[in-house]
Design goal:
mainly alpha; 2 domains
Length: about 375
């Protein structure tokens, strides 16, 4: 259950005949499932767009797409971004320079403005905290430096993936694949980070900032910084896969993958999986889905801790609140469980749904409908 999948297996299996992907071969956890859910949400929005338009509107839309392809302003703007290598000037570049086109990315998935605002707030807050003498302010400053560095490394990777989206789409009308999911997930993580930066920017001058807000905001920002660093490694790995396949194959034959790419995959999984089970759990989804995933992961962590006891269910219920209240402990326990446990543990955990107590409780939540 790791938060990485470069493919959307259910939607894109008909486009490529090679079916043995490196993610299908070795992915063991919720990240692959989570990525599929994000991709399905993106696909649902695309389907609703085409469903609400009639045939005439579709023809007009396609005509506009062809017109945008021949528009020299768009071509020159995209070429300017492609040739640009000065990341420090990103905050001053107009967001119109990265106008999405049918060959690259949907308008709803464009996070360029989010990245620009995030980098501006990082610079402003970093300059502010560098002038303060408190220890927590020094820690904030170091965190801002890490956050700025990971964004500088991630943005060129995102541009490269966006430029090659169209090579892996199901069709020109159905623009969806696992690489889009990765870019959208990174954008949502940056949105959450931007929200925290805005809170810090508003409250940093308050008299009670160091006493009441600094510790909580630091923990939140630290979690999202680690998540973005993990997403940066996922983006780098995705770029390697695109380059290795020469932009022709969505699915990778696991028997022909070079050893260096395989080692990079296992390093990514071993180092970064814990960053997605704590405070950042379910950031790609709506808040309701994120809360559900948090509850499930807390149950998984508690059940893993009591798996070898005589009454694992009762002990798990008693321990579960700890993993709800302390996300760092939940993240460490879930990452260890999904890395070390075998299929018997997973089978035992999901078989809890067949327990009489769970069945009786579910009847009060979702009663049976008499047909």
């Amino acid at each position: 259950m790791y938060l990485f999948s470069t493919v959307d297996n259910e939607e894109l299996s008909s486009k490529n005949k090679t079916t043995n992907s490196i993610t299908n071969h070795r992915s063991k956890g919720p990240i692959a499932a989570a990525s599929r859910l994000v991709s399905s949400v993106s696909k649902k929005s695309n389907n609703s767009l085409f469903k609400n338009s009639n045939d005439t509107n579709e023809k007009v839309l396609l005509s506009n797409f062809r017109t945008s392809q021949s528009n020299p302003h768009l071509i020159n703007s995209l070429q300017a971004i492609h040739n640009s290598s000065n990341l420090n000037n990103l905050s001053t570049i107009s967001t119109n320079l990265m106008i999405p086109t049918p060959e690259t990315i949907d308008i709803d998935c464009n996070f360029e403005q989010t990245y620009t605002q995030t980098r501006e707030l990082i610079e402003i807050n970093s300059n502010y905290f560098s002038q303060q003498k408190h220890d927590i302010c020094r820690r904030f400053e170091r965190l801002f430096i890490q956050l700025s560095h990971t964004l500088e490394l991630s943005l060129p990777l995102i541009r490269y993936i966006i430029e090659n989206f169209h090579h892996f789409d199901y069709s020109s009308e159905i623009r969806a694949n696992g690489y889009r999911t990765i870019v959208v997930s990174h954008g949502h993580a940056c949105l959450r980070t931007l929200n925290i930066l805005q809170h810090i920017d508003k409250k940093r001058d308050g008299l009670l900032f160091n006493l009441m807000h600094a510790s909580r905001l630091f923990q939140e920002l630290e979690s999202w910084t680690k998540a973005l660093i993990g997403m940066q490694r996922i983006l780098a790995f995705a770029v390697k896969i695109i380059t290795y396949t020469e932009k022709k194959q969505l699915y990778v034959d696991v028997t022909q993958v070079p050893m260096d790419i395989e080692l990079d995959y296992f390093k990514m999984v071993a180092c970064d999986s814990e960053n997605f089970f704590g405070r950042t759990c379910g950031f790609q989804f709506a808040d309701s889905v994120g809360k559900t995933l948090t509850f499930l992961l807390a149950g998984l962590a508690a059940y893993n801790e009591t798996y070898h006891r005589s009454i694992p269910i009762a002990a798990g219920v008693a321990i579960a609140p700890k993993y709800m209240l302390f996300p760092e402990q939940r993240a460490a326990k879930c990452a260890a469980a999904l890395r070390d446990c075998d299929y018997l543990f997973c089978q035992s955990f999901w078989n809890l749904l067949d327990h009489d107590v769970v069945k009786k409780g579910s009847r009060y939540i979702v009663p049976h409908v008499t047909v």
